[in-house]
Each structure stands twice: as structure tokens, then as C-alpha cells.
Amino acid sequence: FDDYPFVEDTKTALEAYLDGRPPTTCREVFLSRDRKPLTAGALYQQLDEIAAAARVTGPHNPHAFRHAAARAVLLAGGTLKDVQEKLHHTSIKVTADYYAHLSKEEQHQRLDRFSPMRRLAAYQEELTSSEQVKLERDKKSRLRLVK
Predict the structure, then answer these.
(1) What is the DSSP string of 74-143?
(2) CA 116 → CA 38, 49, 120, distances in Å?
(3) Which residues share a beta bridge with 31?
(4) Dist. CA 125–CA 117, nearest whole Å
(5) What is the pTM for the complete model shown?
(6) Which among 140, 76, 141, 137 has a CA at the least distance from the CA of 109?
(7) pLDDT digits (tens, 9 = 90+) for 51-88
(8) Quick one: pLDDT at residue 53?
(9) From the CB of residue 21, how many other CB atoms can be counted at a distance below 10 Å?
């Protein structure tokens, strides 16, 4: 697992799955009920059954999960380079063309989240009262120097 950039929860879930599955000589991770490698068709069928049971109406195929995960990385502050490497795209242009389109609301949320002014305000709130007094004194000193 060290060769793949899994989050700890995914690594733990995969390890638990592998520890609990019946012994096999297959190198593939996911197996069918008859202990053979899971085919793409069987995977789609399982996803259809799970989606129906969960009343999912939107896309629920493996590619939709890949797309959703890539967008989640971007919305959480990851870069196009992070997504390109994770998805093994040969060109960052491919990544940008398919994953970098954010709605206006998503753009505003990201800009607000990463705003330098917001970070400065949060930093100032974390200061102790004596640190805030010193910061204000330093600001006034700098203003006097400018005048």
C-alpha cells in the first residue's frame, strides 16, 4: 500500500477486506463470489444494485466516483497538479479540461476559504490580548514612518 497515496481510512478498509476475504492465489484485489477476479461487468452490476437499494438517481459508475473524488480534492484546496498525479493524466491540460470547472458558488466558496484577509483575521483572533496590543502598536509605528 505504500506505493499508492491512500488516505488512512482507505488503507485500513482495504487491509480489513484483504484480511477477511477467503484465501486465493489471485493477485487482483477484488474477487467475485467464486473467488475469481471481479470483472468490469460484475462491478457495474454490483454498483447498480447498491445504487438502487440506496435510491441513488445520479451517476454511480466507477468513472463517476473518480470524477467526484477529483472534484473533492479541488474543492478542498488541492491543486490541478495533485489531481493530475492521482489520476495519472499525462497532461495537466486533460485534468484542467475535465475537472477544473467550478460553479460560481464553488468559486466563491474557495476564494472565501483561501482569502488572505480571512486568514489574517483568523490569525489576529488567535492572538492573546497582549500580542494584539503589540500588533496594533507596531501598525501605528509603521504608519508614522510612512507619514
Answers:
(1) HHTT--HHHHHHHHT-S-HHHHHHHH----HHHHHHHHHHT-HHHHHHHHHHHS-HHHHHHHHHHHHHHH
(2) 48, 46, 6
(3) 37
(4) 12
(5) 0.58
(6) 76
(7) 999 998 889 998 888 888 888 888 888 889 999 988 88
(8) 93
(9) 13
